[in-house]
Amino acid sequence: MPAPSSSSPVMPPVARDATPAAAPPGTPTGSTPGPPPVPTTGTNRSRGAAAGIGAAVPTGIPAPADPPDVTPATPGATGAGAGTTVAPPAGEVALPADLAALRETAIGVLRANDLGDITRPSPTLYPHQWLWDSCFIAIGLRHLDPARAAAELLSLLRGQWPGGMIPHVIFAETSDYYHAGPQRWRCDRVCTTAGGVQSTGVTQPPMIAEAAVRVGEAMSRDERVTFYRRLVPGLMRFHEWLYRERDPDDTGLVTLVHSWESGMDNTPTWMEMTKPVAPRTVRALRRINGDDALDALRRDSKEVPPDERLTSADLFTLYRIVRELRRSRYEFRTIRNTFVPLVQDVAFNAILVRANEHLVAIAEEAGFPVPRWLARSMRRTRAAMNDLWSDGLYLSRDFRTGGLLPHPTIASFLPLYAGVVPDSEVDGMVEQLMSPRYWAKYGIASVPTDDPAFLPRCYWQGPVWVNMNWLIADGLDRYGRREAADAIRRNTVDVIRSSGSMFEYYSPLDGSGAGSNRFSWTAALLVDILATHPPR
Ligand code: 2M8
Fold it and tell me: Of all protein residues, whose CA lies closest to atom 13 belonging to ligand 1?
């Protein structure tokens, strides 16, 4: 098993995702009737960001108790915090001093990114609400304020489309620039969302049910049932939409129409499908001027160096696909007749399998029946995951050709989270995951380190991602592989600690942080790991 990284070198501080000075304006409210009222925690939407870290203004996320009487986390500090422990908040376990300080840093990031009852993934790079980000964030927030965590999930229903889709981004009313904002999607021409808010026209991994169960665990039974009753009707419609709209041929597997739906934007599996449909102008510009001309045109890399993001050619290709989706009015029956790459994504479907199980459980607790056809579709997905098995791992599938896409990545391990891997194959998968091919010195690479596409600091092309670690560790727990699960969690805490900041992703080779350095899901999942599996 790889050595933990607690003695890792100190990374140079990087000024990245600056907290904006001004409070973001209020979150949109729609004049359109329809959505179930979404509870808030009775707080002003703009207060979180306005208050900033450590401000006296109350936020939905409780301010940390008085700062611990210890020196703040030192980047590169080692594990046990020199033996000092800090008195924990009520209900939490005592942590070594350096981890207690790291937890405060994480809570500070969540407070600074708090927009009332939604949390933006990062202050400047991602100033809106993202579907699966909000789910990971709620999993952390439940330890701080379960009602606020529930509000984070319920607020996703404001973006629900009449057909049931919950979009991947729900746009906040902010003037902060986002490169794929409402103008790129023009979804208002196609439909009105439940809450009258602007959104994108695609979805993201269905993590809501998992997050709902975790948040429910932090509530009393009455609170939980009330929360589930508000959530389940919309959540059930979302799962129905996934099957009706995205598996019309009844294959058992849901098909994605854009890599943004996978959440792993530039993972090689998707980029191989995407590159062939690059716009002609992009190809011509590259031929004449190389990548520089394209780099000058992009606007998503102002805070983060372009080499930590996807290439400009890939980005402009993703924009082209959005244009085509828009022309198709975001309807799968039309999209399937265009050039748009269509993928039965292994990670998305694995998350769906687990989400289905959770949905059945919470629907029962809330007293809602699951339609028979939906229950049957859910069973079909679990069985269809076998069709993605190839040579000791799972792969995504090209919807059009039916061929498996020959690029194993971190997504290939998510069937462990789904619980669909036969027990006889689990140890083989764990062995692969723990081998240097994936697990480099500082953690699990999102692309095998010997893959020609591997880039240790580039987005979904190699870095360690905290959410992937969390999901895989959770699956391994349920398979009874506690030692491996604990090793992953320990490693996750170590890599965050060694950088001292809540980075979006980390290099598996040297532990350095990359992307945004005030990233919400890193902060939230750290809070969760420290609460549920405090390092021993
Ligand atoms: C990244 O994706 C967005 C587009 O959705 C972007 O690059 O602008 C991905 O890492 C995605 O998984 C994540 O949900 C999002 C916000 O953190 O950022």
Answer: 263
**What's the rounded Cα separation, in Å, for the pair 121 and 128?**
7
Query: Is 225 a residue whose pLDDT tops 80?
Result: yes
504 is catalytic: yes
Predicted model pTM: 0.86
295, pLDDT greater than 90: no
> Which tokens in the block code for residue 296?
């000058």
Ligand 1 site-directed mutation target among 16, 113, 120, 126, most atoms within 8 Å of CB: 126
Please name the residue that has the structure tokens 């990284």. Answer: 5
Establish whether residue 133 lines the binding site of ligand 1, counting it when its CB lies within 6 angstroms of any ligand atom. Answer: yes
486 is catalytic: no
Q: For a ligand 1 pocket test, name from 125, 169, 265, 517 the mutation site with the most ligand atoms within 8 angstroms of its C-beta.
A: 265
- Spell out the alpha helix ranges (H) of 161-246: 182-185, 208-217, 221-246
CA distance linking residue 181 with residue 171, whole number of Å:
8
**How far is the CA of 525 from the CAs of 133, 135, 265, 436, in angstroms?**
11, 10, 21, 25
pLDDT given at position 88: 57
Mean pLDDT for the stretch of residues 284-303? 75
- 245: closest CA among 184, 185, 161? 161
